[in-house]
Amino acid sequence: MKALIATGLMAAAAAAQAGDHRVEIDYYTHHYDGADIALSRFHCGVASAMHTAEERGAWLACYGRFAVNYKASLPVGRTIPVEVADAMSEAELAAAQQLMNQVFVQVAQEARQQADLVLLAQGDVLSARSASGLLPGLPAQTRQLPDRP
Questions:
Q1: Long-range contacts of 86-91 (CB under 8 A, 24+ apart)
Q2: Where does the record locate the signal sequence feature (predicted)?
C-alpha cells in the first residue's frame, strides 16, 4: 500500500514538474526556430553587399563566430535547458530532437549559401563543399535519451 502511494506521489510530482515547463516543452517540440544558432543572430550583414576585401574579411570573421556558436550547440538538443529536458517525456525529447535536427540542417545550409556568396564575391574559386568546411556535419544520433527510473 505504501509503495502504491509513493508511486502515485512520484507520478504527481513528475506531472507537476512538466507542467511548470509546459511552455518551454511546447517550444522545443513544436516551435523551435533556431534563432539561438542562426547566422542572423550575429548581424554579419548581407553577404551579397560585401564589396571590398575589408568588408568581406569582417563578414567572414563574423561567420567564424557563428560557426563557433553552431559547433558549441552540438549535439542537437544540447541547448535545451536541463530542467526542461528533465521535465520532458521520452516522446517529447525525441520530438524536440527531431525538430531541432531539421532546423540545424536548415540553418547550416542557409549559412553555407551566404558564405558561398561572400567567397564568390572575393573571387576565390571554391566549391560549395570547401566553402562550407567551417561547419561540422550533423551527427546521426543527436542526443542520447536520459535513463528514466
A1: 86/17, 86/146, 87/14, 87/17, 87/18, 87/20, 87/21, 87/25, 88/18, 88/21, 88/25, 88/28, 88/29, 89/18, 90/145, 90/148
A2: 1-18
Which carries the bigger pLDDT value, residue 66 or residue 117?
Answer: 66
Under a CB-based contact definition with an 8 Å cutoff, are residues 96 and 77 in contact?
yes
Phi, psi of 104 (to 5 degrees): -60, -45
pTM over 0.90: no
Q: How far apart are CA 144 and CA 70, in angstroms?
A: 19
